[in-house]
Design a protein that fits this description.
single chain, 277 residues, alpha+beta, Alpha-Beta Plaits, 8-stranded antiparallel β-barrel, 7 helices
Length: 277
């Protein structure tokens, strides 16, 4: 009796500690399960859409306001994923480029079409649209391109930077029959060299096949700390000894890109309402 009594407090403490540990473990498991569930509930992007709006003269601010104050939230309401919204970076001594580039994500084409149909029929959107257009259309042209992520593309990170970055959208047109060589060069060499120099590989895309105007093309998005860094980094890339060897080896049987027009570059600055900045 005396021996049992003397050990009882210690035994109770051990039992209590065990129960506490079990509770903590269960809580951690629940939290992990919750995090996993939340992550799995996030929309999976199987289809991207690049949309290009040319603002009517003097209407860019109104177009931005409509996106900022209404459209982006309505997109989300209808199951779309707004990724990035960009103005074309100004070029010294050149007229302003009145295009607004933006990137959307969807599960697939069926989900995309259903979401856009619901968006177009939304009474709030109809009211917003009518009010915004009362003094004339905000856009003079709308273009769109459907894209799938290339198999080697990094996972798109839409975490905004503390300071808005400078972006570049590049479209390459391959010499007939050489598109896969272009992709292989990026996958095996170019992306790594870009990263070494300090460029950020944001996304690489293959245009969806049912778009004849996009045949033999690839599209990709880079980011830089600022416009000056972009200029310096491309100069460094062009002079890089590894890149020179890779370029020469990859083109020993002929150029991979058509000339002229094989490379189309658009430098972009994110809008204040862009998720990707």
């Amino acid at each position: 009796m005396t021996t049992l009594a003397s050990h009882r407090p210690s035994l109770l403490r051990r039992v209590a500690a065990g129960l506490a540990a079990t509770a903590a473990l269960l809580a951690s498991a629940c939290a992990s399960t919750g995090a996993s569930t939340s992550s799995s509930a996030a929309p999976a992007i199987g289809l991207y859409e690049l949309r290009i709006y040319t603002a009517s003269a003097g209407k860019m601010d109104a177009l931005d306001a409509r996106f900022r104050d209404h459209t982006v939230d309505l997109f989300k309401r209808h199951g779309m994923t707004p990724i990035g919204f960009f103005h074309v970076a100004p070029v010294p001594n050149q007229p302003a480029d009145n295009r607004l580039f933006y990137i959307m994500g969807y599960k697939d084409r069926a989900a995309r079409d259903a979401s856009w149909s619901a968006f177009a029929a939304d009474p709030e959107w109809k009211t917003v649209y009518a009010e915004s257009q009362k003094d004339g259309s905000l856009t003079s042209k709308i273009e769109n391109i459907f894209l799938n992520a290339a198999e080697y593309a990094p996972k798109l990170n839409v975490t905004p930077s503390a300071t808005a970055r400078h972006f570049e959208l590049r479209t390459y047109t391959a010499t007939p029959g050489k598109l896969e060589n272009v992709h292989a060069r990026f996958r095996d060499h170019t992306m790594r060299i870009f990263s070494r120099i300090g460029m950020t590989n944001m996304m690489y895309w293959r245009p969806v096949a049912d778009q004849p105007q996009m045949a033999e093309k690839m599209v990709y998005l880079l980011s830089y700390p600022n416009a000056a860094a972009r200029t310096t980094m491309w100069q460094t890339f062009g002079a890089d000894e590894e890149w020179k060897k890779v370029s020469a080896e990859s083109q020993k049987d002929g150029p991979l890109l058509i000339s002229p027009g094989g490379v189309v570059s658009v430098q972009l600055t994110p809008t204040d309402y862009s998720p990707l900045r």
